[in-house]
Amino acid sequence: MNSEKNEELEEEAIELDEFEVLAEWTLRRLRKPSEEPMETYPKRVLQWALYSLGLEEKTQDIYFYIREREGVTTTEVAEQFNISINTARRHLDQLHTLGLVDYMGREYRPTYDSVAKAIDTMLLPRITDLLRTISRIASTIERAPIERTPLALKDNVEKIQAEIYKVLERLREIKPEDGALKPPGLIGGLQEMMAQMDTQMAQLGTQMNELFGYSRSSEGESVKVVQHVPSIVITGDNLRQLEEKLVIQHVNSVEFTHDVTKEDIENHVKLIRHVKTLTVPEGAFPGFLGKITHVTEVKRY
After folding, report:
1. For 293, which DSSP code?
2. What is the tens place of the pLDDT at every residue in 24-42?
3. Domain 21-138 adopts which CATH fold?
């Protein structure tokens, strides 16, 4: 039983190993440090802040060493703390990932004299950008329920059509020479079903037009229109699969993922208008020039 469990864990680890780790943070929520004599309290607070950021004692000592020297090399860190070059590099990389130090040539130096300023200026934007990227990528698959709505309506229409065909077959079975009138109940049922189908078709048309509607621009060009939805996330693949240019209008939030390029926008986007928040990659932004109107806020990342 234990061997089966171990095999499952190994398989899961192999799958997760397929994801390349580009950066990693460990954050701890600690109880605020207690009051103590003023001569030791400032350093105690710094240690508390650094431990909150996931730094163990050795890495903290290296950070304080860098602050005292205002710049050190990997070799100097290795010699000072009696550790290997590779171990020293791992400590320095952790400090760099947190935005506490930066390197110029071979030297590592503090980014700021203040840990608080380093967190606000360097670390917070990095973590915020990471969380936004995770959210954007996750939302590209979570839009599926919206796209299924028109398909559900289409299924309803097809079911109603099938029932109407059954009624029609029953009506055809009644021959004039039999001297029998066509049953009023069947005719009423047919009329009711036709009315239901008209309603469903109207709803289907509205949904398709609002979400994935096709129309023509003022120049007579065929365009794909997305409108009247709370939010939408668009990937580079989404754009490259379009046969018509895209028009987005009357949408609260529009986000283009990091894989969208300037050429994607130039080739596949016609117009974006009446949008509250538009989020775009920095490199793709020039492609939007001349295509945006009545957009309240543009965020570039």
Report:
1. E
2. 777 777 787 777 677 777 8
3. Arc Repressor Mutant, subunit A (1.10.10)
